[in-house]
Amino acid sequence: MKVAINVLKIFFYTFLISLGLACLFFGYSDRTVDELKANYAKPPSLFLKLGELDVHYRAEGNQSDSIPLVLLHGTGSSLHTYDDWVTLLKPERRVVRMDLPAFGLTGPFPDRNYSINHYVEFLQQFLIKLKIKKCILAGNSLGGQIAGAFAIQHPEMVEKLILIDAAGYKFESKSAPIAFRLARMPVINKLLTFITPKFMARASVENVYFDKSKVTDSLVDRYFELTLREGNRQALVDRLTANIDTFDFKDIRSIKQRTLVMWGDHDMLIPISNAFKFHDDLPNDTIVILKQIGHVPMEEAPYKSIEALLAFLKNQ
């Protein structure tokens, strides 16, 4: 009995020492929005008050474009994931993007409700506030699921739909970012809200890229620093432990708008088989599979992916 107690004591003290060292070397305090604005809210960034949220967004390009392109990012990302696309699009098109609640500078939903329906409500309020009656709606990953659900619930506000490695159907990842896996683990996910090693941010970004050489230090810094925005780490845990919303194929079949399904063939997070599920269920879609590209084509391969986008937009 004494031996067992001694072993437990050793285990307990070892755990405390390990936890202390982890906090010392990998513990990071939350960063305020004001601290982060200098790097991540430079012009043309704006902030829009929606209830208790102060939404970080950008509206750029041709202001005479009456049906703007609205871009939604994925889990753990921010509006910056579309930087290269916007540079190429804005000479001719109006482009609107925002940091979704839980991510970037917008920060968490006050009620911690991360259901897809809640995101759809948020998007509707955001578009109404900007007086956008109809848009071309594009989304990557989580953003793609929100875009699809929005098109189902508010078809009158969507001219065309673009789904980029979109969530929505059930799937099993071949490989998920380590941050996603830890965020779903009880107890461990509590530690994740204040112990956030930078190498974990790099590993998570590399996980969604096919070409790891494109994962630069500045890219990792952006993902890492925006994760530290006050409330975002808890929001990530809340989002990834929420009930998983999925599409019913009957709902998908109700989407009549022309839809582009764009997918990286080396997406380890959401398998390419899901691209063909969308293709089978959508009544009016074009599918484009991008070779040797991962989960975030608009970020990893902006020029190749935007070719597919522009071809789709030009084809009436």
Structural account:
There is one protein chain. By secondary structure, this protein is of the alpha/beta class. Helices cover 44% and strands 15% of the residues. It has helices spanning 2-26, 33-40, 83-89, 116-129, 142-153, 178-183, 188-192, 198-207, 217-227, 232-240, 249-253, 273-281, 297-300, 302-314; strands at 46-50, 53-61, 69-72, 94-98, 135-140, 158-164, 259-264, 285-290. Strand 5, helix 5 (142-153) and strand 6 (158-164) form a beta-alpha-beta unit. Helix 8 packs across helix 9. It is globular and about 50 Å long. Residues 3-26 have low confidence and may be disordered.
Query: Strand percentage, roughly?
Result: 15-25%
Q: What is the average per-residue confidence, as pLDDT, rounded to a whole number?
A: 89
Task: Tell me the helix content.
Answer: 40-55%
Number of helices: 14
Structural class: alpha/beta
- Note the overall shape: globular
Radius of gyration: 20 Å
Quaternary state of the chains:
single chain
Order of helices and strands: HHEEEHEHEHEHHHHHHEHEHH
- Major sheet strand order: 1-2-4-3-5-6-7-8
Question: What is the number of independent domains?
Answer: 2
> Could you tell me the number of beta strands?
8
